[in-house]
Amino acid sequence: MEAKGLFVRNFLVRAVSLIMLTAFLAGCSSHKAAVPAKPVEEPVVLTADEHNAKVIFKAVSIGATVNFKVGKTGNLHRVGAVYNDAQEQQMPAFARGLAKGLMRGPYLARPSREMLVPVGQLTEVEGVANWRDDFGTTYRLGECGPLSRTFLAQSNKTYLVEFDLQNFSSCDQKIFDITQAGQKDQVSPAKW
Q1: Rounded mean pLDDT of 149-175?
Q2: Does the residue 94 lie in any domain?
Q3: Per-residue DSSP letter, 33
Q4: Is 130 within the bounds of a domain?
Q5: Which of 66, 118, 144, 190 could be bridged to 59 by S-S, CB 3.0 to 4.6 A?
């Protein structure tokens, strides 16, 4: 009986080896010629001009995504979700890629977003922070906002909107004029 079991075992090992060798060789023989590379598209760079101001959206806090909307008062359009990638930048490359994938996949979040807004019009910016608190096998979803700020966009200006979630208990949103390199001047809210 033991000889029969040994025979079956040896037969199975040879069969599996043959199948794997066949699959490997089939994979190698079906290799197609390299596809010519597509020309690299230049990224779109938004610049402020006499008709549009540039607005950059960022999250100051780590651990939450912030969803922004912008537009005329009462007619806001979704900009998208942003997150602070400072923690991610200190990770090894493979972990950084995994973290980006986890943020960009389900949340469609980016480290920053940019948009052009028409000048001379009262512009409203709204931000809402979302996060998840894990407690072992359970979790709680948290939210802070929406916070809304208005400003009068001026020609050839670049603005930075920062959403700051402090200790997951309170939040603040500020708008800065960053047109001049190295300068960050807070913009006073406009009245409607």
Answers
A1: 90
A2: yes
A3: P
A4: yes
A5: 66
Among 55, 54, 56, 59, CA closest to 172: 59
Which pTM value belongs to this model?
A: 0.70
> Could you give the percent of the chain with pLDDT greater than 70?
73
Query: 97: domain range?
Result: 52-186
Q: What are the pLDDT digits (tens) for 89-129?
A: 677 776 767 776 766 667 777 888 999 999 988 999 999 99
Note whether 143 and 56 are same-domain residues.
yes
pLDDT surpasses 70 at 74: yes
Whether residue 83 is found in the same domain as residue 168: yes
Indicate the number of domains in the chain: 2
Is residue 87 within 8 A of residue 102, CB to CB? The reply is no
Lateral strand order in the sheet of 138-152: 109-110, 75-83, 65-72, 122-135, 138-152
Q: How far is CA 70 from the centre of its chain?
A: 18
Sheet with strand 158-166: strands edge to edge: 113-118, 52-59, 158-166, 170-177, 185-186
